[in-house]
Amino acid sequence: MEKQCVLVTGGAGYIGSHTAVELIAAGYDVVIADDLSNSDLRAVEGVRRITGVEVPFEQVDCCDREALGRLFRQYRFDSVIHFAASKAVGESVHEPLKYYRNNLTSFLNVVELMRATGRPNIVFSSSCTVYGEADAQPVTERTPRKPATSPYGNTKQMCEDVLRDAVAAYEGLRGIALRYFNPIGAHPSALIGEQPQGMPQNLVPYVTQTAAGIRECLSIFGDDYPTPDGSNIRDYIDVTDLARAHVAAIRRMCGGARRADYEVFNIGTGRGVSVLELVRRFEQVNGVKVNHRIVGRREGDIVAIWADPTLANEVLGWRAERTLDQTLASAWAWQKHLCGME
Ligand code: UDP
Fold this sequence. Notes:
The protein is of the alpha/beta class. It contains eleven helices and 13 strands. The protein has a seven-stranded parallel β-sheet with strand order 3-2-1-4-5-6-11, with helices on both faces. The chain has a two-stranded parallel ribbon with strand order 7-10. Helix 5 (96-117) runs parallel beside helix 6 (151-169), helix 7 (203-211) crosses helix 11 and helix 9 (275-286) crosses helix 11 (324-339). The longest helix has 22 residues, at 96-117. It is globular, with a radius of gyration of 19 Å. The N and C termini lie far apart (43 Å). The chain binds uridine-5'-diphosphate. Uridine-5'-diphosphate (UDP) binds next to helix 7 and strand 8.
């Protein structure tokens, strides 16, 4: 049987590169497209080294309709996983037009070209940010979305809606939106991982850089929240587990079983972990110290959110497998690799 091929836009990025690895391991052909604006060709090299497959790479900006069209003519893929997007929440508040242009244009181009060329399946990278400050935890897919608190979050909601309406209108188009919780960690080989450019905005890269001595001190944004230890609670999902959820989504769409044409799944562990707990575990598991101090709350942070992943467990047959300790060890191994510490 001919192998199914998947186009991975943003495949040189953090989640995209891990997903490319898991797709290849599951027997798919993969084409990576990325404009390298916030990613690195070394991630593609890492994917090739891990898998032993010379994965094709095309430097394409998905906002460039012509170039994307050429890619669609060049490769015979049935499915697209669309990661290519700008992702810094804070930046999106200061540069909203950049976010609306990048994230909406690229998504519209992909979906329009899929329709025009008869490509049936798309997986869209959504985010638990669409829930905002939910009234109860954990959140299920039925938990109402709250108005977005940033242009970034708004683009996620808008793309979900575009996808829902497009699959309702166009025969033969199917879509799955995966709502990621907080992806962390790196591939166990330490050949690919997260590579923030400049000052890390996310917790775990800041933790690993502080442990490595690149940053002096981690600021913990608030210990006066109404949670057991006063710090925020999140659902930290291992990036390899998250990558496998994409494979499960592709499998479901390619399988031809009867199901709704547009589906949404929470991709989290179902376990809430506080910031202080995460830092403590990181220190214990890796035997390193993370200098930290408590500072004021960060604007826009929600108190707590974690997933009810039952739907993904039951319908996609997917569940998070790696423990928090394994994931925090992989994050540290990757940081050491980046710093040439071993
Ligand atoms: N956080 C922190 N210090 C940092 C970065 C993040 O205390 O330098 C906290 C942040 O307030 C939040 C959690 O870590 O409670 C996760 O933040 P991150 O930016 O990684 O993801 P978010 O949940 O905001 O998408």
